[in-house]
Amino acid sequence: MFPSSIATDLLLNPQSSSIKRIVVTASTVGVGLAPRAGHPYTEEEWNEPVLKEVKDLGKEASGIAKYSASKTLAERGESVF
Question: Is residue 34 part of a domain?
Fold first, then answer.
């Protein structure tokens, strides 16, 4: 789970002055797997249940939970820059 969020932090670090432009692509798993009809997602919403699942189960969490948690952490980290 660390490579995705660490890479985001390293790329967006202000000391990386040689980087002039970054294109961020996102995954819907950052906000959750199930769409909610008529509900637009905002930058305030993150997939908190999957973060809790991975925290609680660790290595025993499912592959999709680990992937989703990694994407959530990376995308949430990117939004603070």
Answer: no
Number of domains observed in the structure of the chain: 1
- DSSP helix/strand/coil, 77: helix
Tokens found for residue 21: 């432009």
Is residue 24 domain-resident? yes
What's the token pair of residue 17? Answer: 């002055």
Tens-digit pLDDT profile for residues 22-72: 777 777 888 876 777 888 877 788 889 999 999 999 999 999 999 899 888
For the CA atoms of 26, 30, 12, 10, the dihedral, rounded to the nearest 10 degrees, stands at -110
Residue 41 forms part of a structural domain: no
